[in-house]
């Protein structure tokens, strides 16, 4: 669930520089939300704020929910254009992200390993788990990035331009995956895009800036 009341987002300074707002909105558990707006309208700034990476200039927001009572964090932002580094399999890429989030490089426990395998299955990456990430499509790699985020067990998953630079087939695959993920897990998913037509086909709600 995402709920905001008169939130103004921007960058802190002597007086603060507003980028977008005030905004009030509410999206339920399991909804897939398209965030749209022109360049510079504040889409990335809003998602960074909801993910706790930036403080709001004013107003309040909540990223809670009933669907994921065991959530480790409220919201996670998956950035665009994560580099595909040769030499890592899909499973190793996800595992490395999990280790980094723990703040150490100790061995994952059994529960964490189960979370990894569950994420691979949810993203339908089982058959690609042992393949080098440099040899999979950009759409498949985007799914691997989503799988890595899933292991964090967040109430809200946000993606900044997840279909940017993808061809039509991979773009549709990623959007379908995001909506299926929201509906099957109860996670609230928000993605920003300039591709309004395809985005509308695979989202349940729209937030326009």
Number of strands: 8
Cα radius of gyration in angstroms:
17 Å
Second CATH tier, the architecture: 3-Layer(aba) Sandwich
**End-to-end distance:** 19 Å
Number of domains: 1
Secondary-structure-derived class: alpha/beta
CATH class: Alpha Beta
Put simply, the count of helices is 6
Helix content: 25-40%
Estimate the strand proportion.
15-25%
Encode the helix/strand succession as letters.
EEEHEEHHHEHEHE
The largest β sheet comes out as: 5 strands, parallel
Shape, per Cα inertia axes: globular
What's the CATH superfamily, by name? Answer: P-loop containing nucleotide triphosphate hydrolases
Query: Remind me, CATH topology?
Result: Rossmann fold
Task: Describe the structure in your own words.
The protein is an alpha/beta fold. The chain has one domain: 3-Layer(aba) Sandwich (Rossmann fold), CATH 3.40.50. The strands form two sheets. The chain has a five-stranded parallel β-sheet, sandwiched between helices. A three-stranded antiparallel β-sheet has the order 2-1-4, with helices on one face. Helix 4 packs parallel to helix 5. The longest helix has 18 residues.
Q: Summed up, what is this model?
A:
This protein has 209 residues and is an alpha/beta fold.
Features:
6 helices; 33% helix; 209 residues; alpha/beta; 5-stranded parallel β-sheet; Rossmann fold; 3-stranded antiparallel β-sheet
């Amino acid at each position: 669930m995402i709920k905001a009341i008169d939130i103004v987002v921007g960058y802190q300074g002597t007086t603060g520089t507003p980028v977008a707002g005030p905004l009030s909105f509410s999206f339920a558990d399991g909804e897939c939300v398209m965030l749209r707006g022109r360049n510079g309208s504040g889409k990335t700034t809003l998602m960074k704020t909801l993910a706790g990476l930036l403080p709001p200039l004013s107003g309040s927001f909540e990223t809670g929910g009933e669907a994921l009572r065991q959530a480790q964090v409220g919201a996670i932002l998956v950035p665009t254009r994560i580099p595909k580094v040769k030499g890592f399999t899909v499973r190793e890429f996800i595992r490395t992200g999990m280790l980094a989030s723990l703040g150490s490089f100790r061995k994952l426990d059994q529960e964490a390993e189960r979370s990894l395998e569950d994420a691979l299955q949810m993203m339908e990456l089982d058959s690609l788990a042992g393949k080098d990430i440099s040899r999979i499509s950009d759409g498949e790699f985007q799914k691997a990035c989503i799988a890595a985020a899933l292991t964090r067990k967040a109430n809200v998953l946000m993606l900044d331009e997840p279909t940017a630079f993808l061809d039509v087939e991979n773009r549709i695959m990623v959007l379908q995956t995001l909506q299926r993920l929201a509906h099957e897990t109860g996670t609230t998913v928000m993605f920003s895009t300039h591709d309004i037509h395809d985005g509308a086909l695979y989202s349940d709600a729209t937030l326009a800036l």
